[in-house]
Design goal:
It is built from twelve helices and three strands; from the N terminus they run αααααααααααβββα. By secondary structure, the protein is mainly alpha-helical. The longest helix is centred in the last third of the chain and has 26 residues.
Amino acid sequence: MTVTYIQHVPTAGKIGAFFRLLFMWKGGVVKGIWRDLVMYCILYAAISVGYRYGISQDEKMKLNFERVCVYFRRNGDYIPLSFILGFYVTQVVSRWWGQFTTLAWPDTLAMNLLSYLPGNGKPKKIRRLVIRWANLANILTLRRMSTEIARRFPTYDHLVEAGLLTETELVKLDKVIETTDSLYPIYWVPLQWAQVEIRKAKDAGHISSDLVFTKLQESVQDLEVKNKSLLGYGWMNIPLVYTQLVTIAVHVYFLVSLLGQQYLSPTHYINAGGNLTKVPPETPNSVNLSGHDYSAHDYFIPFFTILQFIFYFGWLKVAEILINPFGDD
């Protein structure tokens, strides 16, 4: 969910101008990932407790577990997560902004109609009729893009109830739908009606010149271009394989880190006459069979691993929300 927060940063002259934004819940990173983070911490803690109080009781099982953890720790960075995720989020954000700038706004058409087709009576009826058709075209487009709009207007009868469409116009739409076998969008039909109505207004003398007539027709055509471009975003998605790749990479990386970032306390041995003898960890010249770097300190809370999780999963959440700007988020 994108929220407006600029009003909370009226100036950059104060120290930590962005700090107050960290406590915003709606649309914030905490709201987006807290469930995933809690689940990750629970799994991490369960594995840690299982290792310390369960697996460590069996020396062979303990050694095998430690070797797996060491293997994951050494090879987990082979997943190019920053590159894959960063490039993907860049594409999603660019696509999201492109869809916003492609939204068709009837305001320009409305202002041009008021300027070039002034007066009450018939001109006023024409203005209202053309703008209603412009709004109808936008709704017909958004019904294919937005789940919220589709729920609000699930059928064409609901458009009639809302006053966006008349019964006579519905019959005309049904004929077009029947002709196209419902395979193609029909957002352009109301815009074509609007163009015909503007031409009739020109023929009736309500529009003063050919230049004004052309300007009004261009305003209607601009709505058609915007709606067509918006539908193009719905038809042409980011390749599914890339979305799957990013999702797999992020989740596999942190599944690996569940073991790779565990604190280990491997048994130490010293070679005494060809035989391995258990000794305390600080014993000089002692070794552990798992290959673990025993210089690491034991911290119950994996602070930097949690930070890494917040950054990467927050990044992924941005993509999940913005990839469908017209969804329920």
